[in-house]
């Protein structure tokens, strides 16, 4: 039979979905700004593999000649991006969700096993709570990256007033490179994230909107023969309740 | 068929109902929220441009946001916050030239050039370059930052604006909120908040790399204001004025932040 299992608290769903369009706007407006001095490439031994970005890409997204507009959007939505991030971190700290999110000493080994499993090399995955080890690492990294974007952003936004931030970022020039690299990082994160969400299926996706997953557990009748000696139907509701955090299972 | 549903079946039905109800509520909220967000974005993206004045070229709500953000960050401004300086050998030999707006007047002659200080009394103070050169000289080697995103370590020298104010006894003028500077032909002009103008690293510069400034860099006298983007570092200063209203500013009329402070 089916049971409802609570998964994502409202605050986490809220910050997740609020962040999505904000980050999109930050990346887009950042692109409008970057265009004005688009000097970054991946060059190894004098050979340029990638130029950020090719002309067709700019034309496709109508990027050219919009520096001022990009800055105006960027310096408004930076507030929402930062506040939403602060709210998320505070929530995870206060609620104790951080325990499920932060990697622990087993996480690196387990994440490797998760990766092998996802690539269909390994059959078994290690036991997990809400998030597997790879998710713990990814979701913690993305928060550190978010912090990094605000920090390197401040370093290039107010390099004189926040000279110490600029200094910690290795100077103005490096801070801009880091700020850009983090953005590329988000794009990679996003692509992997989408693939994983599709693979994980509807039940998982729904939980990020509605908060719960539907689990199939053996019904009372099905398990009856196995637990012959036990009094009828007594222990199961208790376990159910406990699993579902004692809330809203009736 | 008349047999009553078992307890388990009833429970199952109740759960199904609950799942449906919660799905409906949460997805409705989700789509309403997404719709509202999209509507908000449409509103902002299609918002009317500001009325062209001292600032222009930006959607009204975004200009309000820029001005509010300015007020927030002006609170952290301090004369104790200095731009990082470098040893002389780090300075670029080939200094980047990014703009020649205001430098294209063929009638201009550096020999006859005089700086005009427009006092609020109506008097105009005219000062020649030799006189400015005789004032205490300050050097700075720092990372010049362009609003486009590039930066370059450059070496400039001249008189600090705050020293200049003191020498010509312009303290009364400097009590006002803004300084305006324009090129002699009036083609390029900037407005500066007084605290940034009086920052100890703000220079009226006449030398670059130990030589008199070349024409393309704004001979004979230009502004070097490290607490602002390059767009505020006016080349070839013709006039300086003081005001409690924001003076006109070339790039603020083109959609850029008026403050443009670093």
Strand order of the largest sheet of chain A: 1-4
Q: Provide the CATH architecture of chain A.
A: Up-down Bundle
Count of helices of chain B?
A: 5
For the record, the CATH architecture of the largest domain in chain B stands as Alpha-Beta Complex
**Overall number of domains of chain A:** 1
Number of distinct helices of chain A: 11
Distance between the amino and carboxyl termini of chain A? 14 Å
CATH superfamily of the largest domain in chain B: Oxidoreductase, molybdopterin-binding domain
Helix content of chain A: 55-70%
Question: What is the makeup of the main sheet of chain A?
Answer: 2 strands, antiparallel
Mean pLDDT over the full residue set of chain B: 93
List the uncertain runs of chain A: 232-250
Order of helices and strands of chain B: HHEEHEEHEEHEEEE
Helix/strand/pairing category of chain B: alpha+beta
CATH class of the largest domain in chain B: Alpha Beta
- Quaternary organization: heterodimer
Q: Mean pLDDT of chain A, as a whole number?
A: 86
Strand content of chain A: 5-15%
Strand fraction of chain B = 15-25%
